[in-house]
Amino acid sequence: MQTETVKKGRERTAQEKISDILKKKMTFSFEVFPPKNDKPIEPLLQTLEKLYQYEPDFISCTFGAGGKNVGRNEEVLRAIVDSGHNAMAHYTCIGQDEEDILHTVENFQKIGIRNMLALRGDFPEGWTGTQGAFAHADRLMQFIKRKFPSMTLSGACYVEGHIQARSLDADIAHLRSKQDNGAEFLTTQLNYDIDAYRRFIDRIRKAGITIPVIVGVMPVLYKDGVIRMTLSNGCSIPAPLSRIIGKYGDKPEEFKKAGKEYTVNMIYQYMNEGIDGLHLYSLNKYRDLAEIIEEAGIRGTF
Ligand code: FAD
Known about the structure:
With 302 residues, the protein is α/β, with parallel strands linked by helices.
């Protein structure tokens, strides 16, 4: 009986638009990425089973620019939806003409997806444009919204500005265009600087961007990962994090322990800013993430 109730509740959740959940509460969610085409999917399915225990409001699945692993992406999304959980499909328009876009979004709808993160994507090496129907995410959103009005769209945002943007002002002006073209909420790229986040929120609200902002948190677990991701995205490493790198950079276990504490603290700081949603980049790992979630008391230990 109880199982039946839980199942029914989950079925309802699975069909919910994230924009509707955001009207009611702070969302809690995870991001996963599909395994490469030649790798088994089972380890990720096992990780997902464990992540479900934390009752996420949704789980998002990344999309390989150019649609390299579109089959795997759909397999992961289908597994999330079939388990009765809400999914958000990432999608990039690199190398995609209108037909490709229509085909993929139709497939998403067939799977039961009602939420998409619509992105331009990073250019593959040597490319200077998307070589597809749309040059930027705002136009992609306009197209999807016109063809699939019931699809809820999210857009990416960058607390310190996108790495290719000529300035944060320019990036925020383009962000406004995402809202005007159908984005119902935004999801941030990783950011370790809470002061930068506060300034960003002030600036976007002044710029007339009123939609909710879900904060993407990249756990601090590996020194090389932190350095690679911050450099490739043009993000700051604040002093407390740089101290952890300096002190424990050559001691992976100690680095991870200090990094988890840093992550828990960062989650509290974000929550105290009144964020609309917390989105954990899971890196397809379970154990470290579970420790962070339970240590922060967000889920699991009530
Ligand atoms: P855009 O909004 O098009 O912005 C790109 C640049 O162009 C920015 O500098 C912006 O200021 C500028 N710009 C925007 N609109 C205009 C305009 N109308 N005219 C002129 N300039 C403009 N990548 C993947 O490949 N797969 C994923 O699954 C994925 N998931 C992501 C999830 C999140 C939460 C985030 C934040 C990023 C993700 N990315 C992913 C990375 C993303 O694809 C890259 O950051 C990409 O370089 C930019 O995508 P965008 O949608 O923000 O592009």
